[in-house]
Amino acid sequence: MPPEPDSSSSGFTPYHITRPAPVLMWYYVICALLTGPGVIVAIFPLWFKYETLRYKFDEKGVSMSWGILFRREVLLTYRRIQDIHLTRNILQRWLGLATVSVQTASGSASAEMSIDGILEAEQLRDFLYVKMRGAKGLHDEPDHAEPAAAERDESLVVLREIRDALRVIAEREGSAP
Q: Model pTM?
């Protein structure tokens, strides 16, 4: 049974998404056709990827798996997510697709996970941002209690102390920021 919708992400929940949209296969076919004579070589790996691609979104994170001979599975908890990018080439825009790239602090230059074939890419990106921030403890409480949660963050307290000290120094010099 999927979890209840998350009200902080405008009602969109990806918990029901387990497979890419069928239009992703059309995207793969067009990409393979653009290879010219290499269409025979290009279409089979893309078809196998489409047929085996699975997503799972839950309260702890997101997982993605694909492959037949060489099965690959990526599991990311929301806590590990550092940044999320949404990219679309001209063909993806025409088909209504996008790639949501999820990056972690793994030290790799490329994305840890690239989610393809999702029609609601903007909503998915926003959902992941809310979950990413919620995993860090900033969005789990109601809005009126958020400053109290932020006060518990030691680094934020130190930064505020530095800010206040800089303001005092600036006022002494006569040029308030």
A: 0.67
pLDDT at 9: 42
Residues 106 and 131 placed together within one structural domain of the fold:
yes
Range list of β-strands (E), the chain: 54-57, 61-66, 72-77, 81-87, 99-104, 113-116
Q: How many CB atoms lie within 10 A of CB 101?
A: 18
Residue 112 sits in the same domain as residue 170: no
Tokens coding 14: 């990806």
Kindly report, residue by residue over 9-63, the tens digit of the pLDDT.
467 889 999 999 999 999 999 999 999 998 989 999 999 999 999 999 999 999 9
* Backbone φ and ψ of 142, nearest 5°: -60, 160
